[in-house]
């Protein structure tokens, strides 16, 4: 056994969610001594997996002596740096890595397509995966989108991993290097985790390319000012493939009129945007990014066209729920920041009753002020503390009501709405004040709509 192996033998995992348990299984499989510690209660299915695999764990506490004896700590992306246990680990100089870093270590010769951005990453990740599947490639959908990357590597390795990556996961990488990285956009989000400094968050997103080489590709939006400004400060060691709706690019992708053009190596793909399954300007960007990634993987243009035409959008992301007495209900619970809500409102063509609110992450509501003025007839605030939203919109929206459950919010919105209106759940906030997560919020919203 070489010294590197010895160095990395005692793995402590902080956080027993999807990524934590996945890393525990991968660690156990590769001969690590694994201890998992969660400050809260574990979900029954995760607890059972740890027991079934003989993995040592604790819940409801963090035992300092056990944790600080680690040679390496894998920290769940949800745990902030200001957590007391994390501070102690840092003080002791114990290396801290993220789950994607750990999974990367054991991926073998597999390729990674990694997607990040403030908005649209789940949709783009799912679309790239759908194109790969349509082309018959041996691939898996992993990362932030719901299935642990580490667990996939441990239990069912694939030739290609299509991974949605958050800034939190990128914060703790060392060697993680995607073959193809995609950066969709950067807008203010999660500033509470970055000392309220936007530039810290921007730097974090750009870590997706820090280990890339000239054998790799970097797909990015040339129309995003924040990306272009930061890119101008960097020397990059990867192959740039920009995409744009404002100008033609030599390599990458662009939309001119109603035609999407992709130019990658010898492959040329053209397609009418009216054939895209995903509608709206923001989804044109997502579709271009996915198309470039697919072409870079060598997928034939017929397969790209076919997949882009028949893709179904994700649950909780601009999801049509029902039409009740002429009122359309849309579940966009995954909109956990103001920019996501901006995109949702931008695609609305009917008078809208907007359900907003939850745990505020340092939101600047002035970003959606113009769209709210133009499209929103009423706001239903669904949160514990709605003062900031009420203050932001009380002078421009005639009707603002408050609700503390999804059912009350849906009933209030339905009372206000008339035939040919839309009730849009697009909260612009995290969900943790009233719900377990954004999925729980979206599901409760859908259940309440079905009861109308």
UniProtKB/TrEMBL annotation:
Catalytic reaction(s) noted: UDP-N-acetyl-alpha-D-muramoyl-L-alanine + D-glutamate + ATP = UDP-N-acetyl-alpha-D-muramoyl-L-alanyl-D-glutamate + ADP + phosphate + H(+)
Similarity field: Belongs to the MurCDEF family.
Domain Mur ligase central, chain residue ranges per copy: 115-293
Localisation: Cytoplasm
Primary residence: cytoplasm
Top enzyme category: ligase
Domain of life: Bacteria
Keyword Amino-acid biosynthesis: no
Mur ligase C-terminal domain residues: 316-429
A GO molecular-function annotation: UDP-N-acetylmuramoylalanine-D-glutamate ligase activity
Organism: Sediminibacterium ginsengisoli
InterPro entries from the UniProt entry: Mur-like_cat_sf (IPR036565), Mur_ligase_C (IPR004101), Mur_ligase_C_dom_sf (IPR036615), Mur_ligase_cen (IPR013221), MurD (IPR005762)
Keywords, in A-Z order: ATP-binding, Cell cycle, Cell division, Cell shape, Cell wall biogenesis/degradation, Cytoplasm, Ligase, Nucleotide-binding, Peptidoglycan synthesis
Example GO BP: cell wall organization
Statement: the UniProt record of this protein carries the keyword Membrane: no
Pathway per the UniProt entry: Cell wall biogenesis; peptidoglycan biosynthesis
Recorded GO CC terms: cytoplasm
EC number(s) from the headed UniProt entry: 6.3.2.9
Residue sites binding ATP per the record: 117-123
Cross-referenced Pfam families: Mur_ligase_C, Mur_ligase_M, MurD-like_N
Designated gene of the protein: murD
Protein name: UDP-N-acetylmuramoylalanine--D-glutamate ligase
Record's function text: Cell wall formation. Catalyzes the addition of glutamate to the nucleotide precursor UDP-N-acetylmuramoyl-L-alanine (UMA).
């Amino acid at each position: 056994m070489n010294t590197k192996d010895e160095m990395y033998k005692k793995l402590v995992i902080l956080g027993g969610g999807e990524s934590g348990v996945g890393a525990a299984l991968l660690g156990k499989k590769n001969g690590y001594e694994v201890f998992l510690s969660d400050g809260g209660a574990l979900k029954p299915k995760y607890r059972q997996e740890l027991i079934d695999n003989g993995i040592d764990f604790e819940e409801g506490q963090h035992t300092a002596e056990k944790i600080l004896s680690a040679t390496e700590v894998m920290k769940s992306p949800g745990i902030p740096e200001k957590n007391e246990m994390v501070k102690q680990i840092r003080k002791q100089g114990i290396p801290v890595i993220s789950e994607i870093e750990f999974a990367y270590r054991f991926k073998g010769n597999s390729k990674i397509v990694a997607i990040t951005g403030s908005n649209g990453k789940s949709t783009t990740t799912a679309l790239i995966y759908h194109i790969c599947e349509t082309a018959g490639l041996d691939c898996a959908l992993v990362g932030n989108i719901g299935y642990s990357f580490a667990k996939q590597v441990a239990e069912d390795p694939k030739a290609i991993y299509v991974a949605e990556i958050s800034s939190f996961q990128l914060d703790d990488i060392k060697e993680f290097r995607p073959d193809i990285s995609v950066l969709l956009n950067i807008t203010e989000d999660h500033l509470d985790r970055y000392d309220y400094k936007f530039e810290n968050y921007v730097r974090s997103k750009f870590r997706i390319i820090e280990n890339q080489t000239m054998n790799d590709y970097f797909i990015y939006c040339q129309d995003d000012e924040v990306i272009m400004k930061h890119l101008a400060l960097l020397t990059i060691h990867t192959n740039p493939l920009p995409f744009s709706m404002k100008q033609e690019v030599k390599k990458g992708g662009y939309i001119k009129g109603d035609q999407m053009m992709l130019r990658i190596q010898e492959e040329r793909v053209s397609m009418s945007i009216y054939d895209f399954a995903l509608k709206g300007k923001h989804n044109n960007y997502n579709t271009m990014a996915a198309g470039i990634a697919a072409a870079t993987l060598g997928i034939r243009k017929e397969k790209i066209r076919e997949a882009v035409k028949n893709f179904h959008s994700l649950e909780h992301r601009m999801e049509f729920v029902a039409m009740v007495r002429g009122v359309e209900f849309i579940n966009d619970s995954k909109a956990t920041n103001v920019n996501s809500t901006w995109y949702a409102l931008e695609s609305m063509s009917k008078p809208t009753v907007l359900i907003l609110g939850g745990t505020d992450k340092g939101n600047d509501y002035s970003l959606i002020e113009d769209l709210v003025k133009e499209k929103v007839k009423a706001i239903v605030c669904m949160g514990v503390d709605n003062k900031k939203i009420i203050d932001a919109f009380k002078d421009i929206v005639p009707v603002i009501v408050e609700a503390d459950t999804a059912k009350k919010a849906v009933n209030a919105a339905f009372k206000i709405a008339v035939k040919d209106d839309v009730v849009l759940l697009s909260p612009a906030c995290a969900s943790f004040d009233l719900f377990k997560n954004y999925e729980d919020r979206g599901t409760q919203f859908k259940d309440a709509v079905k009861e109308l």
